[in-house]
Specification:
- This protein is α/β, with parallel strands linked by helices.
- The protein has 10 helices and 7 strands.
- It has a 5-stranded parallel β-sheet, with helices on both faces. Strands 4-5 form a two-stranded antiparallel ribbon.
- Helix 1 packs across helix 3.
- The longest helix is centred in the first third of the chain and has 22 residues.
- The chain starts with a helix and ends with a helix.
């Protein structure tokens, strides 16, 4: 997909996300919205070998959602990719649904159970090492939150990624500056992210995660032969695409009422019309 097609798809996914979170009466919508552009680009431009008819294809690229509380963004992306039927996604929040509040392997297209923050990168390192050992070309992508960077296990994984020269591993930090307790720099400062990860021996690139054009350009420029793992600092806006949510900490786990849902959907539909026009 080209940039304009990805922008349109991301907006359609955004509308679907708002609707399913509203219907479920639960979800981490603020972080869902901030990482949705990156997730759309990963599944429809970057990752190779993804096949809903063969979800465990041997040469598929792997994706780990370490910030597992933002699983709703993954669910709508998997639906758009054909892994989840709409009637299955509509069961989110209902008794007996296979869709939980964090990723589980019961769901087609999900690689690992995740959401215990700080664990995803270690799993991704293991996957990347396995690909190296088997001399396979597939890549591993791990999406983390910026509040998650307070977890010490991340830095053990960072050291291992450098030691084993995992240039087939790409970690992404959704840098929206807000976590459940407030601003990340007030809760547990992590700046400068770039200097920190560079010191661990990673190839660090900053990008505008609110811009599909910059996301595509950044992923396309990754050198998968440089013998360094890659860290993308994706600078984003919490609640991106819904004006009354943007940059507001309470929407980390906020629940939409009917009026707010209609307002959000209307705003997104206007952008969809503009992109389709």
């Amino acid at each position: 997909m080209n940039v304009k097609e990805l922008e349109l798809l991301a907006e359609k996914n955004r509308k679907r996300l708002v609707e399913v979170v509203y219907a479920a009466k639960a979800g981490h919508i603020g972080g869902d919205l901030s990482c949705l552009n990156v997730m759309t680009a990963l599944y429809f431009h970057v990752m190779k070998g993804l096949n809903p008819q063969e979800p465990k294809a041997a040469d598929r690229d792997r994706f780990v959602l370490s910030k597992g509380h933002c699983v709703e963004a993954l669910y709508v992306t998997l639906e758009a990719k054909g892994f989840l039927a709409p009637e299955v996604l509509d069961t989110l929040g209902k008794f007996g649904s296979i869709l939980s509040g964090h990723p589980t392997i019961e769901v087609p297209g999900i690689e690992v159970n995740s959401g215990a923050l700080g664990h995803g990168l270690g799993i991704g390192v293991g996957m990347a090492i396995a690909a190296k050992m088997d001399k396979k070309a597939w890549k591993t992508y791990v999406l983390m939150g910026d509040g998650e960077q307070g977890e010490g296990s991340i830095y053990e994984a960072a050291m291992a990624g450098h030691k084993y020269e995992l240039d087939n591993l790409v970690a992404i930090i959704d840098r929206n500056h807000l976590q459940i307790s407030g601003n990340t720099e007030d809760v547990m400062p992590i700046d400068s992210v770039k200097e920190r990860w560079s010191a661990f021996g990673w190839n660090v690139i900053e990008m505008n995660g609110d811009s599909m054009e910059d996301i595509v350009k950044t992923f396309d420029a990754i050198d998968y032969t440089n013998k360094k793992p890659h860290l993308l600092v994706s600078n984003t806006t919490k609640g991106k695409g819904v004006s009354f949510m943007e940059g507001i900490a309470k929407w980390h786990h906020g629940v939409l009422n009917e009026e707010q849902c209609k307002e959000a959907v209307k705003e997104i539909e206007e952008r969809i019309k503009g992109l389709e026009g």
